Amino acid sequence: MTDPAIRVQDLCFSWPSGAKVLQSCSLEVPKGEFWMLLGTNGSGKSTLLRLLAGLLAPQSGKIQILQPVGFVFQNPDHQLVMPTVGADVAFGLVEENLSPAEVSGRVEQALAAVNLLSLSRRPIYALSGGQKQRIAIAGAIARRSEVLLLDEPSALLDPDSQMDLVGQVQRLVKSRGLTALWVTHRLDELNYADGAFLLEQGLVVDRGEPKRLKARLLQTQEL
Ligand SMILES: Nc1ncnc2c1ncn2[C@@H]1O[C@H](COP(=O)(O)OP(=O)(O)OP(=O)(O)O)[C@@H](O)[C@H]1O
Ligand SMILES: [Mg+2]
């Protein structure tokens, strides 16, 4: 069996105030699969994603994750920085010192992957919320990300765009062999997942079959 794309072992994280967020948290996401991370407000989902992305450092425990990692935020306006679609996707490639032809090739390919090639000259302000999220994903694809970490990417979308986005990420994972971990409170999105984790007070208390987790959560609590 190949190594998982994400492996977290006994991860512990506290804020400087001493508040414990993750307590010996362990999980694995197999390569080429689309997993979701569920849990009540404050259970540590965003903190875990930031640790996985290397934006925070744990006090103890081990993180193994395939590189490069792409991060997609809840609010795309916190992520898209350039005036137009094409320029924004190209911006993420600055550090790679590619030739202009290589940059435009990568940008075109990434926009095609999210079905937005026709919008490459469009100003960012003239995009819908769902289109903005797809541009953020195109940025990660242009950088050849192996793993996508998505923190409630659908939270600001209407139900149709929400389902378009989750379906698109599922297709990208399957067609390109990527691995994705998607944080959500919306249980209907679980239909698209290969598996899911349930986080409670910084511990993974359940994991596995999305249908079973969905049924459990529908019975027990409002997320
Ligand atoms: N920068 C910070 N400094 C101190 N405490 C923080 C910081 N960010 C988050 N916290 C606290 O850490 C805990 C976990 O927060 P986190 O954002 O990971 O939860 P979450 O599961 O993503 O919640 P939500 O569903 O509301 O997004 C919470 O108690 C939160 O108040
Ligand atoms: Mg969060």
Automatic annotation (TrEMBL):
<dbReference type="InterPro" id="IPR003439">
    <property type="entry name" value="ABC_transporter-like_ATP-bd"/>
</dbReference>
<dbReference type="InterPro" id="IPR027417">
    <property type="entry name" value="P-loop_NTPase"/>
</dbReference>
<dbReference type="InterPro" id="IPR017871">
    <property type="entry name" value="ABC_transporter-like_CS"/>
</dbReference>
<protein>
    <submittedName>
        <fullName>Energy-coupling factor ABC transporter ATP-binding protein</fullName>
    </submittedName>
</protein>
<dbReference type="InterPro" id="IPR050334">
    <property type="entry name" value="Molybdenum_import_ModC"/>
</dbReference>
<dbReference type="InterPro" id="IPR015856">
    <property type="entry name" value="ABC_transpr_CbiO/EcfA_su"/>
</dbReference>
<keyword id="KW-0067">ATP-binding</keyword>
<dbReference type="GO" id="GO:0005524">
    <property type="term" value="F:ATP binding"/>
</dbReference>
<keyword id="KW-0547">Nucleotide-binding</keyword>
<dbReference type="Pfam" id="PF00005">
    <property type="entry name" value="ABC_tran"/>
</dbReference>
<keyword id="KW-0813">Transport</keyword>
<dbReference type="InterPro" id="IPR003593">
    <property type="entry name" value="AAA+_ATPase"/>
</dbReference>
<feature type="domain" description="ABC transporter">
    <location>
        <begin position="6"/>
        <end position="223"/>
    </location>
</feature>
